[in-house]
Amino acid sequence: MAVVFLAAACGSDTSTDEPVPDEPASGSATTVAPDTGDDPSGGTLVLAVEQWPECVNPVTSCANATWTIWSVLIHYLPRLMELDQSNTYVASSLLAEEPTVANGGLVTADDGTFTLTYRLNPDATWSDGTPITSTDVWFSWRAGLDTTGTLSTIGLDLITDIDHSDPHTAVITFSEPYAPWPTLFGGLLPAHELGPDTDIADKWNDEITVSGGPWIQEEWNQEQHILVPNRSYWDAERIPLVDRVVMVPREDTDSELLALQTGEAMAAFPQPFPGARERITGDLTYKVAEGTYMEGLWINQDAPDRRFDMTRNVRQAVAYALDRERIAEIALGTITADPPVLQCTGWNPGFGPWCQDDFARYTQDAAKVAELLEAEGWTRPDPDGLWMNAEGEELVLAWNTVAGNNRREDVQALVVDMTAPLGIGWEIINYDPGELFQNRLPALNFGPVALFANSTNPDPSVANLYDIDGIPTEENEYTGQNFTAYRSQQASDLAFAIDAEVDPAARLELVHELSQILAADVPWIPLYMLPNMIIWDPNAVSGPGAYVSSPYGGFFDMFDWTVHVE
């Protein structure tokens, strides 16, 4: 699952590797530090892509799929602020300097308005030679607000004006202080190419025609994605070393591994999968590190096919029916040692003090399941059967995840067996990634339960998850990322209060207050932080591994990779 590319980025503030227990047997794959390579190699780099986007528009639900960002957008769209290797926001090469209070880039006025000034690098140009200017910043803002079916407007909707009269200076005025300002404008759009209409829903759905990054798109379709170097890129250190990159869809674990083992592909960035250490064989090298995505059961309270209301008691009962420690062990035990259970609903425990243990109360407890359901009139006529409500509906939940994802399907099988003795049943209906993430989730046409991963952010902003006005509906043209249809005005207000609070101690108090509400309401059930993994053939390519923990994906720095040309 992805965040809005224009409005937010996600990540952790550390790239510390998770331990990979037990050294693999002699002759099998080993984990080694990547060789970055010193000399340009030319040649073609071939990469296996786990999830293939159905379209590549950077503003609409096309950008809801993580791999739209990882395989396409991150390589073409320039950023104002960006995350470095330690996942700290720094000025990108598009900026002359980072905005600070000291240099006048960050100003809070007496009337409460907040002004952010970006000074742009005058050498920055789009791949067609057109300068990147403050008008592109303005256009990106308006496109984020005006595009039909825009994924999210959070943060952008607080901007009252962007002065772009000076082409090298964008002066952005907010109606109030906005603490997550570095997360905005994570992918600028070319006004000269996409404008003047700021509704770009019908543009860039199957091609990116102009680049402001290290790569230029030569071809993108459902069979392959071809990138070639942007030789006029103003950041000389990021001009690619290879002549060409070919990405091919290999959308399940078996086909990814086969592509690597047969030499069809040189690298892959798969989700961790069961038995990874045993299955990565031969000369292949891999690296497992801390991830930036939280996996859980996301409960869609507006699911069109739900058989009963997903009340708080039902949501809590499902949470008490799960042995989440066992789930984490089955999902990740063959990948990392002692995988911890995630105990907070929106924050990454790997950075900052934001994540508390408020969800730790939910351990498997049959008595609590019965107490919660009986309080709402559910009965269990057959002590060994399913719970039934007053209308005669059994407590069976439709459950969606990504078809062919072995780890997630193993979790489904485990949970089906785990909750049957407690009277909760499941109907498993799985979809390919494009259908689930780009079609069903943005339209709330899933579940009522889905198993997927959502991004975390170095900043504690979680407004996109809990914004009561961000529930996608036909009336709002399916704008927003509150995919659980969670309707708590108190939680929504607190989420936006967190964004408006610039004092770290005060923000922490607000985060903890919201965390307690979420633990009681259970809009979704956290399971674990998903580690990241990259696999490559060191005989074919040098360089992978530096950005394995990055929200930009393990292919982000492929401009620094080299292939071994014979």
Detailed description of the structure:
This protein has helices at residues 66-71, 134-146, 191-194, 253-261, 276-279, 312-320, 324-332, 366-374, 406-419, 433-440, 463-466, 489-500, 504-521; strands at 44-49, 81-83, 89-91, 106-108, 114-119, 159-163, 169-174, 215-220, 225-229, 244-249, 267-268, 285-299, 396-400, 425-428, 449-455, 524-536, 541-542, 562-563. By secondary structure, the protein is an alpha+beta fold. The chain has a 10-stranded mixed β-sheet with strand order 8-9-10-1-11-16-12-15-13-14, sandwiched between helices. Strands 4-5-7-6 form a 4-stranded antiparallel β-sheet, with helices on one face. Strand 8 (215-220) and strand 9 (225-229) form a beta hairpin. The two termini are 39 Å apart. The relative contact order is 0.19.
